[in-house]
């Protein structure tokens, strides 16, 4: 349904380095840079864009908006979260099982360098795949 999404960032160079590391575990790579104003990441075409907005204030945690990206495995959800923290991002929910509308999934939430809330999600094929996260904190 959604073809692509873009987020505003205050420092394109800094955010590009951040997202190079954070999106790699999700198999999303930098595909295009346009005039030092925008950078596109994706698998075959740019699906996730960074747009430079000088003077942008950090997004408040209470915006209620977040972007969720599919991950190829539980390990990639953990790697996404770890990379974000290593690059200066903040956790908004550690990797672990969560209850969706129709099924349990593995997810992790981060705030990027500008306060954008990004989630990585993996839907296990079998219920047992979530067993290693037993006892992990769940978000509402």
Order of H and E elements = EHEEEEHEEE
Which spans of ≥5 residues are poorly predicted at pLDDT below 50? 134-140
Query: Can you count the beta strands?
Result: 8
Radius of gyration: 15 Å
Major β-sheet profile? 4 strands, mixed
Average pLDDT over all residues: 89
What structural class do helix, strand and pairing data support?
alpha/beta
Number of contiguous helices: 2
The percentage of residues in β strands lies in: 35-45%
Task: Tell me the span between the first and last alpha carbons.
Answer: 25 Å
Helix share of residues?
Answer: 10-25%
Q: What order do the strands of the largest sheet run in, or round the barrel if closed?
A: 1-4-3-2
Please sum up the structure shown:
Helices cover 18% and strands 36% of the residues. The chain has 140 residues and is α/β, with parallel strands linked by helices. Helix 1 (12-23) packs antiparallel against helix 2.
Structural write-up:
The chain has 140 residues and is α/β, with parallel strands linked by helices. It has helices at 12-23, 74-86; strands at 5-9, 29-34, 38-42, 46-52, 67-70, 90-99, 104-111, 117-122. A 4-stranded mixed β-sheet has the order 1-4-3-2, covered by helices on one side. The longest helix is centred in the middle third of the chain and has 13 residues, at 74-86. Mean pLDDT is 89; it is low at 134-140.
């Amino acid at each position: 349904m959604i073809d692509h999404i873009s987020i505003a960032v205050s420092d394109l160079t800094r955010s590009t380095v951040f997202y190079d590391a954070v999106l790699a575990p999700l198999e999303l790579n930098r595909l295009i840079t346009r005039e030092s104003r925008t950078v596109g990441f994706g698998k075959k075409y740019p699906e996730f864009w960074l747009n430079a907005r000088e003077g942008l204030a950090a997004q408040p945690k209470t915006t209620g908006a977040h972007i969720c990206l599919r991950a190829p495995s539980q390990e990639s959800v953990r790697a996404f979260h770890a990379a974000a923290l290593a690059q200066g991002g903040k956790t908004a929910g550690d990797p672990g099982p969560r209850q969706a509308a129709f099924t349990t999934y593995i997810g992790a939430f981060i705030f990027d360098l500008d306060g954008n809330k990004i989630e990585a999600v993996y839907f296990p094929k079998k219920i047992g795949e979530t067993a290693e996260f037993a006892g992990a904190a769940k978000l509402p």
